[in-house]
Amino acid sequence: MTTPSVKVGDEVPQGTFVYVPFTPELADSSACGIPTKISTDAWKGKKVLLFAVPGAFTPSCHANHAPPYLAKVDELKAKGIDVIAVVSANDPFVLSGWSRILGFGDKILALSDPDTQWTSKLGLTVDLSGLGIGLGKRTTRFALVLDDLKVKYLGVEPDPTQVTVSGVDAVLSAL
């Protein structure tokens, strides 16, 4: 894992993500949707929660990290969170499929960070090439709360296979 270059109090750099917005047509498992882009500029004046996973469908991400966020969307919204999104280096089609299997609907955005462009600026990547299963450079596991693009909470997992400081309960405690 790289050393985080972002810290609480910093304004995050501009970044652009690719995602497939949820539509009712995506309930058909054969539908792919149309990718679109969203910039961090859309989050000006908003309170945003981003949680990042090394990969959709990977064990910790799929079973332990993402589902608790979905289960506590209402609690997060009650604490003032305007936007909830998961970030990963996976392509937008994989993230769309994963988010549909998990049942995100329109509650959690599934944002692709192509080639870890944005998370690299934050120093929040991990090189998983050595595992020999084709993962390569990925987003590391973290949670980030932004308020008007300023970092209010940052929880980076020392071991990206674990979910502690990046989990929803840690974030809720910090809000």
**First-residue to last-residue Cα separation:** 26 Å
N to C succession of SSEs: EEEHHEHEHEEEEH
Tell me the strand percentage band: 15-25%
Strand order of the largest sheet: 5-4-3-8-9
User: Averaged pLDDT, please?
Assistant: 87
Main β sheet profile: 5 strands, mixed
Roughly what percent helix? 10-25%
Structural class, judged by helices and strands? alpha/beta
Number of helices: 5
Brief characterization of the structure:
By secondary structure, the protein is α/β, with parallel strands linked by helices.
Write up this protein:
The chain has 175 residues and is an alpha/beta fold. The protein is 25% helix and 25% strand. The protein is built from five helices and nine strands; from the N terminus they run βββααβαβαββββα. The strands form three sheets. The protein has a five-stranded mixed β-sheet with strand order 5-4-3-8-9.
Keywords:
alpha/beta, 175 residues, globular, two-stranded antiparallel sheet, 9 strands, five-stranded mixed β-sheet
Topology:
Layout: E1 16-19, E2 36-39, E3 47-52, H1 59-71, H2 73-78, E4 83-88, H3 92-102, E5 109-112, H4 117-122, E6 125-127, E7 137-139, E8 142-147, E9 150-156, H5 168-174
Parallel strand pairs: 3-4, 4-5
Antiparallel strand pairs: 1-2, 3-8, 6-7, 8-9
